Amino acid sequence: MSRLEISNLRVLFPTDDGLVKATNDVDLGIEEGENLGLIGESGSGKTVLGMAILRLLPKDARVEGVVRFNGRDLLSLREEEMRRVRGREIVMILQNPTSALNPVLTVGSQIEEVLRLHKGVDKRSARKRVVELLKMVRIRDASKRVRDYPHQFSGGMKERAMIAMALASDPTLIIADEPTKGLDVTVKREILKLLKEVTERKSMLFITHDLASAAEICERIAVMYAGEILEVAKTEDLLDDPLHPYTEGFLNSLPSRGLKPIRGIGPSLIDLPHGCKFHPRCDHATEVCMREHPPMLQIEDGRQVRCFLHA
Ligand code: SF4
To answer: Could you tell me if 231 and 243 are in contact, meaning their C-beta atoms sit under 8 angstroms apart?
Structure first.
């Protein structure tokens, strides 16, 4: 059964310059126990999608579509019900642990708070569980470090603490938004390894611009561009044989594949191109690409691609 099923999700932001189409008719599913990577350049709509699932967007955002989680449409829940889902069943690990952690409270008390709020655990058991959680995310001397303030933790330890906090409520879905951003290579690898381990029996939406990180811990990858999903494939298929010209360009721009950037720049989300959103940058564009919007095509083995080349 799909843990999360997103259908026709559209997020619009009215601005003085016009309507920002942040995501456009997104269809995406995450299975039980699956790690799905959502990759794309910054400004492609990845973070907006994560925030829309949790209904954390600013009030003026117009959100349309269906976000079904364990059978319930999150977009139609009352705020009170949504608060119970948020933090208990779905948690988000944000990109910047320094700003996500409260500097005037100890790391331990912040995790403890989650346990008491969402699991109804008493103070004594909560403290014991916090130490267990810190051990689980490999914080050395966990029983001592539990009394430390965030500034006493290194960047990697803060990220581990954020993961411990996310695990505290034993959620079924974790949304991790660039959790390794700004970490050095060794720490990044350790955090990825840890995330893979702790999400073995959970579902995760792993949002990143770093394809190599997504490839390391995700079974499938969805590629996002200008608010749209352009390709969804099993990780190895996407890496070995990208079907969408944007995915191919994205791969070729990686240092390991020759650092060849895609020509041009991403479009303005206020004034998106007609037809295929990628056509101004695509070497394969034909007249139909400029005129018509390509539908998402279902290729064998659950692969999907939005490109006329595969019609
Ligand atoms: Fe390129 Fe056309 Fe495919 Fe768009 S639909 S990616 S323009 S070939």
So the answer is: yes
Going along the chain from its start, the domains and CATH numbers come out as: 2-89+171-268 (3.40.50.300), 101-170 (no CATH)
Distance of alpha carbon 229 from alpha carbon 193, whole angstroms? 27
Token look-up 């394969």 returns 284
Q: Do 105 and 147 touch, CB atoms closer than 8 A? A: no
Q: Rounded distance, CA 302 to CA 45, Å? A: 23
Ligand 1 site, residue 285, Cβ cutoff 6 A: yes
Q: Give the pLDDT confidence of 90-116 residue by residue, as tens digits.
A: 999 987 778 889 999 999 999 999 999
276 lines ligand 1 (CB under 6 A): yes
The residue to mutate among 250, 305, 309, having the most atoms of ligand 1 within 8 angstroms of its beta carbon, is 309
Q: What is the pTM of this model?
A: 0.94
- Is the predicted pLDDT of residue 1 greater than 70, yes or no? no
